[in-house]
Design a protein that fits this description.
This protein is of the alpha+beta class and about 180 residues long. It has eight helices and eight strands.
Amino acid sequence: MTGIEHFLPGNILKQLLPLVTEVRYPRGHILFNRDKPERNIYILGQGIARAYTEGDGNDVTIWFGQEGDVIISARGYVYGEKGYETMELLEDSVLYRMEWQGLFELYRHDIEICNWARQLLEREFVRTEQRLISHLSETATERYLHLMQEKPGIIQRVQLQYIASYLGITSEHLSRIRGKMFL
């Protein structure tokens, strides 16, 4: 298997490799949805993904992922329950799926793998907290600038309607922000 070694440290890769399956899906594929539990962890090797939920009858984008990002339904992974989100692939994608049963077995017997997983989840928790605070305390322009800084590929590869949804604004408002930036 080629590709996964770019995203995992060598000592962890050796332990996890037997649990990893490379999967390929086309643009528009729903990796998982909020109607069923998803316990596996994915690493996005190639492509773009978005997580969304429904709010007031509309899809509300809550997360974007690109190469190297971890895709996980926290509620599904931790509790084995239906998640809050639907995960859609926005480009033809290559993912590395790690089956949760094998991971949980490794956690019981390998402290290094257990610590790797804990650190992975801690990083995702901090990122989620940062996004929440940003949405509550920053202007739409500030949120857009942060997105450009943190994930410039998203700005270039994702439809503006999804970016506007992620920022909590209309497409028209996003167009005005972008227009002011390029004056």
